[in-house]
Each structure stands twice: as C-alpha cells, then as structure tokens.
Automatic annotation (TrEMBL):
Keyword set, alphabetical order: ATP-binding, DNA damage, DNA recombination, DNA repair, DNA-binding, Helicase, Hydrolase, Isomerase, Nucleotide-binding
PROSITE patterns: HELICASE_ATP_BIND_1, HELICASE_CTER
The protein's Enzyme Commission number: 5.6.2.4
Organism: Candidatus Curtissbacteria bacterium RIFCSPLOWO2_01_FULL_38_11b
Domain of life: Bacteria
Phylogenetic classification of the source organism: Bacteria, Candidatus Curtissiibacteriota
GO molecular function, one term: 3'-5' DNA helicase activity
Family: Belongs to the helicase family. RecG subfamily.
Annotated ranges, domain Helicase C-terminal: 463-629
Protein name as annotated: ATP-dependent DNA helicase RecG
C-alpha cells in the first residue's frame, strides 16, 4: 500500500463507498487524508451531569442506565435513555432512530456531545452525538452512582468530547463516517509517508513536520493545533505550485527555441493608423511587451488580461502581424465555434489593409490563412502551410492545461511557437503571479474612451414584475435581453435557486406572445447551443434564458439587458463578466441583479456593482470579502487546488516563492530531494488531467 493506493482497495471501503467518495474528489488514500475539515464543533468541555448549564455545548461521559424506544401517536419513534455519571442522571432523547438501541444498550459506558436544553426546569440532551466507550466490565448496569466511575475508562474519543472535525459531505457520506475512516487510515498513511519538504526549509520557516500537521488538522487537541497545521499545509500548497511553475518556465525557456521576430515598425504604424480608433495606453504598453517577447529566441509565454471590451483582439493582432512579417503563421484558438468565427471576421477587417489573409478552422469550416482562427479542431486536424510561430489562446481558462500544452506541442516543428493567452477574468496581479508563476503578465486596466457604463440595479423580489415590464418595453423598440439562472435542474441542496428549466416555463407566461424566448444550458448538445445562440444573434429570439454558459463572449450589439437571478451566488468579477455581454452596441444598457437575499453584507456586495465598473476593482472587493477560492471559478478549472492556503496572504506567497527559487537555483533537477521530486510528479499528473 502507498499513498496513491486507490480508495476502493483500502480495507472496509469497497466499490460502493468508493463511488460516493469520488464525488468528493477522493480517489486515493492520499486524497482521503487530504480531505480536510472545514470547521470543528467544540465539544471539548466535559462536564459532570450535576454541573450542566442550559444552552451550553458540552460533553458528558457516563453509563446507560436504561434505554427504550417509544412509539408516538403519530407513529414516530422516540428513543429515551437515562445516563448516569458519578454526580447525577440525565434524560437523553433521540428522534426517528429506533436502530440506536442496537448499539446503545443498558450498561454501556458512552460519551455524548450536544447542547443542553431545559425541559421544565430539568436539563435534557436532545439528539446528541454519541459513541460507545471501551468498557472495563461487560454491560454491567451499575447499582449505585458510586459504581459508575470504575466503569468508565477515559478513552480518547473521536466523535464526542473533543474538537470534532466537520468535513465537506456528500449524500450517504456523513462527517461521522469520514471521521472514522480518516482516523482509521491516518496511522497507515503516517507509516508510509516521509516528509517531502527539505529539512532546512522546515527549520527556517518553523513549520510543523508533515505527519504531525496532518494529525493536527484532523484531530486537534486545541484550536492552536489547527493554526500550526494550516501554516504547514498552506506553505506546501504555495511552495509546490511555485516550484512547478518555475520549473516549467525554466524548462520552457531553456530547452526550447523560438523564432526571433523583428518588429517591422512601418507595418505596425500603418496598422495602427488604419484602425478606426486610437489605442489606449494600456493597449500600447501591452503591444510593446508582447513584441519585445517575440524579439527573442526564448519562447514567449504571456498572459494578457483585460475586461470584456478592453480591446484584447487588437493587441493579439499586432503580435500576429509581427509573426507574419517574419514569415510565420499564427494560430488563434477560441473555445467555441461562434467565437472563432467572430475573431476571424474582426481580424479579417483590421488586417485586410495589410494584405494578411485570415483563415478559419472549425468542425464545419476549414480554410487556411496566414492567421488561422479556430476551435479544438486546430488541435486535431489542422496542417499549417508555413511554420507556426505564434499561438494565441482566447479565454484560456476554458481550455484546460493539457489542451493548451497540446496546442503548441502539436505544431512545434523545429521551433516552438511563442504563446500568448488571453483572459477576461480579472485576476489581481499578485494572485495571477501565484496561479500562473510561469507566465509573464500584461494587463489592460483601461477601457477605450467613451464606453458607456451599464446601469446596474439590485432588484428585490417584490419588484421583479416591474423589471419584466421594463424588458417588454425595451423589446418593443427592437432590443434583446439575457435572463440568467445559475442551475439547470432544480436541486434540493439549492432549494432557493431557480432552475433555468422551471424559470423558462414560468417566463413564457410573463411576456407577450410575440416575444420569443430561447433556453440555453450546459446539457444541450453543442449543435443545439450554436443554433440557439445563432437565433439570438439574428434576433429570431428576443430573450435568451440561460445558465452561465453564455459567459463565453458572444457579441450581440442589440442586447441591452442582462437580468441575473440569485445574483448573490456569483462572484462580483463573474457578475461583471456576465454584465459585459450587454452594452456592446451604441444603446444604453442595463443590468438587473435579482436576489432573495436579506443579508445586509450580501446586498451591499451586490450594490457595489452599481458603483464600480472596472473588473479588477470588483475582483479586489470580492477577494477581501469572500476569499479567492470560488470567486474566479478557478477551483473547477483544473488549474490549482488550494484547500488551505489563503491567496491574499502576501507574506506566505512571497516566502514560498523565495524558497522555491532557492531550491531551483541550487539544484535544478531536485537530485538531492527525491521525495519532493516525486511529490511534484504526482501533482503534475493531477494538474494535467483534462477537465
Ligand atoms: P475583448 O478584450 O473583450 O476581446 P475586443 O478586442 O473584442 O475586446 O474589443 C471590443 C470592441 O472595442 C471592439 O469592437 C473593438 O473594435 C473596440 N476597441 C478596441 N480597442 C479600442 C480602442 N482603443 N478604442 C475604441 N474602441 C476599441
Ligand atoms: Mg475577446
């Protein structure tokens, strides 16, 4: 057995539970051990029964005096027990769990944790958590209080009488189950793992040894243990990520050669002069940075970040011109066919004056160009006519790391193409450097002049009909609207969230017969999706009801309204991106944020959408209010998996970064650190799995 042992091969788990565990992303022993509690129930205070105070969260340890199931008139079961310790007795009640009497029998010593409640003036424990303690005698009902003490061994408890870890759960896998399994396998894991972190770093950074940190995060004796554990485990996350990206960068730059592309100043000036607008300073700066990259045999690997509408395409075009002028082709990859066509059209119109041919390569249309826009099909069937010198990837987080890698490796004939990726996700610079340490960064933090702000309103429930009337009015003047709902099917765990399907049915009745609505969600086949988006683009559909799949930028200048249901569930940066789908034409545009939430912070957060219109600023606000995890939707993107590290912790990031650098400088192949090297291999495998 090692830490990569598949979970179903562990004793006592089997395929039934393995399937459930996979829903929690637990596939190996290691995954189970790295499934950390998200909080702890503090039941560490063990009281004697005579000392109980109503309202307190406590644990008691005593012997079951008597226990029985009672059937109520409505046919339900109530389990009633009397527990006795040296000081007194107390009544304990559980509802609808008649099977309890199979494990909990009179005479057994038990530990119970719960909140003390008053029944009349007598304290009672209602539905406490319980576990049977190891007993010295066998099921002996004590004859008097004095006898009780000798029956209890103060064993170390797991589910009661301590800081009890609470885990992310899934249907059929409770925290109690997970806790028991983790307690069971933690010692096994300890026996087979050695600390992969260099000793020197552990000492210099005053970190807890790995095995001890893992014990402490699951089963802390006190809260301070949790902090100690988290400090170590957070360091691991940032340190290994940094090591991987710095190694990737080194590898990328040292082992590969790219074409050195000289900038043709005349052509560039001509291109800029022919544009129907003046470049923003941010665009000028980014173009300089990229052209500078290209003018080197080291492969460029740059991320261009900019809000929707900040003008990334022109920057990409400038780079493509440089490639063309130096005799190389460019590939321009987009996540959907519609976007690929859109890019082709845009680039074609701005590059035509320079006589650069723009091709398209998708499942349905194949035409080579000096620059070829396309979808996944570029990966599989495209054969370039000349050497590909530059690969541009739009909305890169949707592609997945493995696919990105394939995109340039496939076309690396003799030379490796330079790589430019673009994203509209406004990740603050520090965070971006943590996530993409192997990339250089250019940021378009300035919008083109004269862009209208999208009037944004938070709409409480009772005003929703007013909003529908407003939409109806806009549609009468030829405009279109998006209505976004967060989920496809009604989901019990998200009972308050409107499903797109239900919403769609309901919305049909809210608008006049002439108004055509279309439904777009993630479960549709891609051909159906493209058809609906096409109909929306051509105004055959006036209202597009959709899940956030429309986040991928389709350009519908006629769409002036974005209505978002359950807006509080989204990150501000995400809301900003969604809102960026409207206001693309010359018409005044609106964003309605619907919410049932009554939480003041929630509403305040949403209201900042009305005041702030820069993605980066919104991202910073969210980063402070909610932490980075879910904000950028990156957790699902396969890029990283930080469970413990706080990405706004500047000090942690810079220390881990510096330690990673030191190691690589001293020992670039990690020869002296085989365990660390092995750890990175495992992580790399996890990261490169396509999502
Ligand atoms: P995105 O960053 O979302 O990809 P685009 O490159 O599609 O943005 O640009 C959005 C729109 O803004 C396009 O119509 C483009 O022609 C226009 N645009 C780009 N740069 C400028 C600028 N400096 N001034 C005015 N309009 C611009
Ligand atoms: Mg774009």
């Amino acid at each position: 057995m090692d830490s990569n042992t598949p979970i179903e091969n562990l004793p006592g788990i089997g395929t039934y539970y393995a399937r459930k565990l996979k829903r929690l992303e637990i596939k190996t022993l290691e995954d189970l051990i790295y499934h950390f509690p998200f909080r702890y129930d503090d039941f560490s205070q063990i009281s004697t029964i005579s000392n109980l105070t109503p309202g307190e969260k406590i644990s008691i340890q005593g012997v079951i005096w008597q226990i029985k199931n009672i059937r109520t008139r409505s046919g339900k079961f109530v389990t009633v027990a009397t527990i006795v310790d040296q000081s007194a007795t107390i009544e304990v009640i559980w509802f609808n769990q008649p099977y309890l009497t199979k494990t909990l029998k009179a005479g057994l010593p038990v530990s119970l944790s719960g909140k003390v409640q008053l029944d009349g003036n007598r304290p009672k424990l209602i539905s406490p958590s319980y576990e049977v303690l190891r007993s010295t005698h066998h099921s002996l009902v004590p004859q008097n209080l004095g006898e009780v003490g000798s029956l209890i061994t103060h064993d170390s408890t797991l589910h009661t009488g301590r800081l009890v870890p609470i885990y992310p759960e899934t249907e059929g896998l409770s925290s109690k189950w997970l806790r028991a399994k983790i307690a069971n396998f933690l010692p096994v894991h300890k026996d087979i793992t050695r600390d992969f972190l260099p000793k020197k770093i552990i000492e210099d950074q005053k970190l807890e040894p790995l095995n001890s940190a893992l014990s402490k995060i699951h089963f802390p004796k006190k809260y301070a243990d949790v902090d100690i554990a988290k400090k170590r485990l957070a360091f691991d996350e940032i340190f290994t990520t940094q090591l991987m990206s710095q190694l990737r960068k080194k590898d990328w730059q040292e082992k590969r050669n790219s074409p050195k592309m000289k900038t043709n100043k005349k052509k560039l000036t001509l291109f800029i002069k022919k544009l129907p607008f003046n470049l923003t300073n941010a665009q000028k700066r980014s173009i300089d940075e990229i052209l500078n990259d290209l003018n080197d045999t080291r492969p460029a690997n740059r991320l261009l970040e900019g809000d929707v509408g900040s003008g990334k395409t022109v920057v990409a075009a400038a780079a493509a011109i440089a490639a063309f002028e130096n005799g190389f082709d460019t590939l321009f990859a987009a996540p959907t066919e519609i976007l690929a066509f859109q890019h082709q059209k845009t680039l074609d119109s701005i590059l035509e004056p320079l006589n650069i041919k723009v091709g398209i390569w998708t499942a349905s249309k194949k035409l080579n160009g000096d620059i070829t826009c396309g979808t996944h099909a570029l990966l599989t069937s495209f054969k370039p006519e000349r050497q590909v010198g530059l690969v541009i990837v739009d909305e890169q987080h949707r592609f997945g790391v493995a696919q990105r890698a394939k995109l340039f490796l496939n076309h690396s004939q003799k030379l490796t193409p330079h790589l430019l990726t673009m994203t509209a996700t406004p990740i603050p610079r520090t965070l971006a450097l943590t996530l993409y340490g192997d990339l250089d960064l250019s940021i378009l933090d300035e919008m083109p002049k004269g862009r209208q702000k999208i009037a944004t309103f938070v709409v409480p429930n009772f005003k929703r009909n007013d909003a529908y009337r407003f939409i109806e009015k806009e549609i009468k003047t030829g405009k279109q609207a998006f209505i976004l709902t967060p989920f496809v099917e009604p989901s019990e765990t998200m009972a308050t969230v409107k499903s797109a399907t239900v919403e769609f049915e309901k919305l049909q009745t809210k608008f006049s017969k002439k108004t055509k609505l279309g439904l777009l969600h993630g479960r549709l086949k891609s051909r159906e999706k493209e058809k609906i988006m096409g109909d929306f683009k051509n105004n055959k559909i006036q209202i597009l009801v959709a899940t956030p799949v429309v986040e991928v930028g389709i350009d519908v200048p006629n769409a002036t309204i974005m209505l978002i249901e359950s807006a509080e569930r989204f990150g501000l940066a995400q809301l900003h991106q969604l809102r960026g789908r409207v206001g693309r034409g010359k018409h005044k545009s609106y964003c309605f944020l619907f919410t049932d939430s009554r939480s003041e912070t929630s509403i305040k957060r949403l209201k900042s959408m009305g005041k702030v219109h820069v993605g980066f600023e919104l991202a910073e606000i969210d980063l402070k209010m909610r932490g980075p995890g879910e904000i950028f939707g990156l957790t699902q993107s396969g890029f990283f998996n930080f469970k413990v590290a706080d990405l706004s912790d500047q000090k942690l990031i810079s220390t881990a970064q510096a330690e990673a650098k030191k190691i690589i400088e001293a020992d670039p192949n990690l020869k002296k650190y085989p365990l660390l090297s092995e750890k990175l291999t495992t992580l790399n495998l996890q990261y490169s799995q396509p999502n």
